[in-house]
């Protein structure tokens, strides 16, 4: 499938890209090659190939969601320079 230089110019205009006439000529040739390759891929028989969402067979890549012990509120506030007993006290930063 051949893509013309004018079609490349039209697509570039839609994408708000600017190319020289020589660049459009090269892009037309490259895009034509890509579309020819896609045509070849469409000819491949894939009836017995299962669909997949990823090229690698990945399973369980995330860690299990398990609870862990954390520090208590008192432990967190223990090293704070200033608290009100429940929260950290910090200087006012918004006027």
Written overview of the protein:
This protein is an all-alpha fold and 95 residues long. It has 3 helices and no strands. Helix 1 packs across helix 2. The longest helix has 22 residues. It is elongated. The mean pLDDT is 89.
Give the helices and strands as they follow along the chain: HHH
Number of DSSP helices?
A: 3
Strand content: under 5%
- Gross morphology is elongated
Radius of gyration: 30 Å
Structure summary, number of beta strands? 0
The structural class is mainly alpha
Helix content: 40-55%
Distance between the termini: 65 Å
The overall pLDDT average reads 89
What kind of sheet is the major sheet?
Answer: none
Residue windows where pLDDT falls under 50 for at least 5 positions: none
Quickly describe the structure:
This protein has 95 residues and is an all-alpha fold. Helix content is 40%, strand content 0%.
Give the arrangement of secondary structure elements.
Blueprint: H1 5-14, H2 21-42, H3 73-78
Helix pairs in contact: 1-2
């Amino acid at each position: 499938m051949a893509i013309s230089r004018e079609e490349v110019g039209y697509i570039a205009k839609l994408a708000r890209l600017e190319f020289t006439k020589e660049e459009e000529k090269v892009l037309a040739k490259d895009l034509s090659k890509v579309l020819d390759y896609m045509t070849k891929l469409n000819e491949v028989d894939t009836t017995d190939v299962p669909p997949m969402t990823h090229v690698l067979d990945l399973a369980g890549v995330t860690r299990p969601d398990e609870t862990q012990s954390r520090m208590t509120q008192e432990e967190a506030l223990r090293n704070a320079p200033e608290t009100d007993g429940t929260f950290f006290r910090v200087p006012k930063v918004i006027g």
